[in-house]
Design goal:
It is a single chain. This protein has helices at 3-15, 18-25, 29-43, 59-82, 101-113, 165-170, 213-221, 231-240, 269-281, 283-286; strands spanning 48-51, 54-57, 90-96, 117-123, 137-141, 150-158, 160-163, 185-187, 194-197, 200-203, 208-210, 227-229, 244-245, 254-261. The chain is an alpha/beta fold. A 5-stranded mixed sheet has the order 4-3-5-14-6. Strands 12-7-13 form a 3-stranded antiparallel sheet. A two-stranded antiparallel ribbon has the order 1-2. Strand 1 and strand 2 form a beta hairpin. Helix 1 (3-15) packs across helix 2, helix 1 (3-15) packs across helix 4 and helix 5 (101-113) packs across helix 9 (269-281). The longest helix has 24 residues, at 59-82.
Length: 292
């Protein structure tokens, strides 16, 4: 297989455009197109679908890209090492749920330590396909996921049910049944929003649902609703007294937060280093209560 043609294919797949790949690599567009076509002929497989909207990877292209990109990064890092260049470089594509501040802070700290590293952060509450979406590291809440993904557990935490003291002065909440008569806001989900508090399952009629925990936090601070928050968002206002934990004797179930990759053996050095950094620094920030 032509290694230079493989590099051009990876460059085109990364940016989704032959012309942009040509610009970034300094290879004439006609030459780049010809080399990629030759690679497709060599493999007897179409790798890229070309259209007026840009490029998309075929199934064969996805498989090749998933293996070739980290392998080329390993070669590049080995070349830097042979030249005595120890600085970490490369690009890391990260997917994470909305409002995951601890991971965003880890990204910022990692770039400060490694100025040549570049990040592409994709914030979404949907479960991405690491290969199809071109993601190196996905931060995911929950145990589900493809069996082919390799996961490293970052934290197992409980959401906190919270409200402002002023709201609790107006609405008595002594047990799970009382939640049905108190204004509440909930995370947007498929089906009726439900809170599991201790042994009780409470089906809600929320005044608002959203996929934005910052919105829920703001509503709680305003004294409008009872809501649930992940511990890294709830901790500071609970410590300051702006919010109070509701029904602490009836805790919400534990949730697992994991960092997922496709295959650890094929990780580019910069991705492996970032994954290790996240595992080392993020867990205590995701769940500030774990150390108390």
């Amino acid at each position: 297989m032509d290694l230079n043609a493989l590099k051009l294919f990876v460059a085109a797949a990364q940016v989704g455009s032959l012309s942009e790949a040509a610009r970034r690599t300094g290879v004439p567009l006609a030459t780049l197109s010809r080399r990629i076509r030759a690679l497709e002929e060599e493999l007897s497989s179409r790798l890229l679908e070309r259209s007026t909207q840009g490029l998309s990877l075929t199934d064969a292209g996805l498989r090749l890209f998933a293996s070739a990109e980290p392998a080329l990064a390993l070669l590049e890092q080995a070349e830097h090492g042979a030249r005595g260049e120890s600085e970490m470089s490369g690009r890391v594509r990260v997917s994470l749920p909305p409002q995951f501040r601890p991971v965003l802070r880890a990204v910022e700290a990692f770039t400060q330590r490694n100025p040549a590293v570049r990040f592409d952060v994709f914030v979404t509450d949907r479960r991405v396909d690491l290969v199809a979406d071109g993601i190196d590291v996905a931060i995911r809440v929950g145990e589900g996921g493809r069996s082919s993904y390799v996961g490293r557990t970052l934290a197992r935490y409980r959401h906190r049910l919270v409200a402002a003291p002023a709201l609790l002065a107006r609405h008595r909440v002594e047990g799970p049944d009382d939640l049905e008569s108190v204004p509440c806001a909930a995370w947007r989900s498929i089906g009726p929003p439900t809170w599991q508090v201790g042994e009780a399952s409470v089906v809600l009629d929320p005044v608002l649902t959203t996929n934005d925990y910052e919105h829920l936090l703001d509503l709680a601070l305003r004294g409008s609703v009872i809501t649930e928050l992940p511990p890294f968002l709830a901790h500071a206002p609970l410590m300051s007294g702006e919010l109070v934990e509701v029904l602490p004797a009836h805790p919400m179930p534990r949730q697992t937060v994991r960092a997922l990759v496709v295959e650890t053996r094929l990780l580019a050095p910069v991705v492996r280093r970032f994954l290790d950094y996240v595992v080392e620094t993020v867990p205590s920030e995701l769940d500030p209560y774990a150390a108390t």
